[in-house]
Design brief:
With about 280 residues, the protein is of the alpha/beta class. It is built from eight helices and twelve strands. The C terminus is likely disordered.
Amino acid sequence: MIRVFPNAKDPGHPPTKWTPRDELAFYGDPPLMLPPQMPVRISVTFSWDRSEGERLFRSWQRFYPDVQIGGPAYDDPGSEFMPGLFVKPGVVVTSRGCPKHCNFCLVPRREGKIRELPIRDGWNLFDNNLLACSRDHIEAVFDMLQQQPEPILFTGGFDKKLLRPWHIDLLKTISLKRIYFACDSESAFPALERAADLLADFSREKRYCYVLVNYYPETSQEAEARLIRVFRLGFMPFAMYYRGPLSGHRAAADPAWRKLIRKWTNPARLKAFMKSIDNPGDLRA
């Protein structure tokens, strides 16, 4: 199967670091030397790439009769996960959906409640809410992770409210590279503080936290104060700028927000900046 990924910003190059790089993955218009006839699937992740994806749909239709377009930008609910097809090898999804209904999140609308999938091999889990799965499924996932050749990433994130001591015991059975949580509002801090206590045996370099900014009314200075507070809880914050569910914009328009996002999405720059903060170990600062 030919897979096509739009990248209007840099045509001909992979749009993200997770995009496949195999010989049947393309990042724009059909090449001069066309592959043999086969199905073509155009995958669009971001809403701001939909117009480019639709242009590519018309372009590939000139040469192939079976062309379809879909992906998260079109509210694709997802089905059984096939490694290496629409994300590069190493990435794995063992469940779809989420039982929660956060106002800013499209996952429940797109994918519905939690669905456990057949477990494939991989070391970077993209599950939306792995901890919402059954204990049998979670333990089977960790059995798979123990066999992987690379340190484990939980890029999809763990639900801090669902974190339990037995999850910590499982984490200690694998070679953990990084685990992500989320802290999207002031009300999320008590649960994050509890998670910090449970994760006391893991260093900050393994504990990351997505921090949604610009969703609730706030200034960039208020958002940065929240990011610093997350850091002082022992997590490496990663700012997630809210653009809206159907935004056609790739980045923030306001210079102050752009500056904040550049700082708080670059770990090397962030670590240097954090050295200037007084009492970084003060969890209540």
